[in-house]
Amino acid sequence: MRIQKWHVSGRGIMKAIGIGLIVILINAGLLVSTQAIPKRGGTLRITIPTDLTQIDIHKINAGIDNQVLVMTVYETLLTYDEKTNIRPFLCESYKFSQDGLTLTLNLKKGVKFHNGEEMKAEDVKFSLDRCRDPKLPGIHMDDLKPIMEVKITGPYQVQIVLSKPMANLINLLANCVIRAIAIMPRKAIEASGNKVVKPIGTGPYQFASWERDNKITLKRFEAYSSADGPINGLLGKRHAYFDEIIYYVMKEDATRIMALDRGDVDMVTWVPYMQLDDLKKRKDLNIFKGVAPQSSHYLFFLNFNHPLLSKLEFRKALAYALDRNEITKVALWGCGKPSFSIIWPTSQGYSPEIEKLAPSYDPTKAKEFLKKSGYNGETIGILTSKQYSMYYDQAVAAQAMWNSVGIKTKIEIVDWATHMVRWKQGQHDILSFSMIGRLDPIAQAWVLGPNNYYGYKNQEVFSLIKAMEGTLDQEKINEYYGKIYEITTKDIPFLINFYREDTFAIKAYIKGFDKFDIFKTRVWNLYSDK
Amino acid sequence: MTHYLIRRFISVLLTLCLVSILVFSLIHLIPGDPVLVILGSTAEREQVETLRNKLGLDRPLLVSYVSWMANLLRGDMGTSIITGEPVTQMIVQRLPATMTVAAAALLLSMLFSVPAGLIASLRHNTYIDYIFSGLVILAVSAPSFWLALLFMLLFSVKLKILPMMGYVSIFENFWQGLKYLILPALSLTFMLGALLARMTRSSMLEVLREDYIITALAKGIPYWLIILKHALKNAFPPVLTILGFQIGYLLGGTVIIEDIYSIPGVGRLIFSAIVSRDYQVVQGCILLVTVIYVFVYTIVDISYVYFDPRLSYDKK
After folding, report:
1. What is the ipTM, given to two decimal places?
2. Which of chain B's ends, N or C, has fewer CB atoms near its CB within 10 Å?
3. Domain membership flag for residue B201
4. Of A334, A326, A339, A340, nearest to A396 (Cα)?
């Protein structure tokens, strides 16, 4: 038998080794990368539905101002990670004293403001004092009342001294969607007479210009130094890939979508719900929608000074007559989460199970409770506004449902300013309204507290809120919060219908947007691969 | 003429005084609280009271009015409750955009409407006249916001030949500014032009029946000279009246067009000030609109003399 000998040359061996290595490296994904490398440059163009109201974040409450300026231009001491846990951001660490009456914040070193100054303890003290200054008036002059003093205990350390434990202090320091406590440079603000002439912060983008009713332009801050490390929610390195960001003010839904079609903008916020299905079919767009932690919940306030609405049986009749799924379809084209819960759906304390405690759609039960309440066919007013179409749409849907069980109602439409006044003064029967969501149970439960405007008085709920305010134990807070929710399912102080989904339409060449960005869009992590 | 101008000036002052009282009292009487608009739904009671005090909104109305008038006489229209900016500055920033759009819309409408009305009158009761009447009805019936969206869809989105929205001043960049003006001006032209054309036609029809036109024809004066010099000139005063009204209307700002095209004009400012109960801005803007109307009508009244030499404001 002949044995064939294989002659293998040295060159051949080297070739084989090389090919083998290449195969191994390809499998390891080191040579052929499927991930695009983000490139810097270009302009990100975003639409917003209304113009800024002001540029002084310490004075104002408008969500749009926070959306545009916070975490782009201004930054906060604490912020949220991917799971909305609160973490240090402009500080390296924070710690409460044993008795909960002092919060020590150790600031990061080398953080630069846009004017080149370094952020120090005096700037943090100045910002904390300013936002609660009644003469300004600061946006936090009421809820930060427990702060007795902000002390500078080192060039990079401040201490917040409290008159009583304040459970939601860190929530307030981390707020970035609304009522943010932005850190501003003391010297620059004082030099301009305590006025913000131009926003100066520590963010990855600096304020360039504001053309009223037209656009706001931000430019990359090249010396950005606040954050580093892997991206984790709002933590981590802020890359600022785009050279500039322009927010275009476009009030009309049709105009926003046309601008997207034309290529004049790259991202549309507040996409009209009725167009979502059509837009989803397009290959040049990515559509994102979801209930964010701060999403508004839409509800009916019931005036407890009204002879009928103060009766539990009547309120139950109203509650059992409502089909929240249908109301959500009518008001939001289904783009919302039907819910009765004051605990927001993305919260750790929420589960779909808790909705079972709430009154569900049952017209038969509604009629039974209506009979027990002694209702004699009186007409109940529903006050609403068309400022946000959902207010009116939910009122119309509810009117039909209440009518079907025999409850007569009449819708009264007023303008927004009148709507606000009548809400504050309790001049309504049923009020169609919404509340902005908070990532803070204490703030979320404010509407049930002693300062509510619709006359609800439940001492047990007040005690639970007080107990929440007086502890720093998050588990206890969640426990009290759960109990408050249970009470609302029995007492029915109001009728929550749904949590609205936020919607985004983004050009397919814009990369980096994911589910977290529905909560707070991290424009500094977005890039174009056009 | 001097006496007329002095009398006119006095009546303007009285008008402005009356308008100031009316607008001040009306805006303060309607329900709504600007402090709540500023502070939003989560504002605490104490915060609301503090801001109300800071903005002077807790003073008696008469005190507020007198204070506002005193400042106005010094040229100070006050400060916006919502933004804290001087009202004068806010108006001055926005007026050029509104004036540019208004001027473009008027020029465009006159360019088409006056010749169209003229031709329709000369071809009275012919097919040209009937087509003209039909087009005028169509133009007046089409809402300007609907036209705006249609034009945007056609010229900006489908054909991509004109920008969709925004504003660039023609004084900064003429050709760029002109591109941004075309669609807003076109959206307004239809309605404005229809009214002007209709008035031109009916006014011309009246004048063409006059004896002096027949005399001019009999004298053998060229037809085009009779039409343009004798007929149109005499027919123009009523057209001028409509034009004056339209100038005032446009300079008050057309909110919907400014909203759709994102033009930072006076119309949008007035609308958002009313919604947010920004009293100072509303008062300032309404007064501005009044001054514009009064000024324009004075010019129109004086120019009647040019078109009709029989008129005179001198005492005899």
Report:
1. 0.76
2. C
3. yes
4. A326
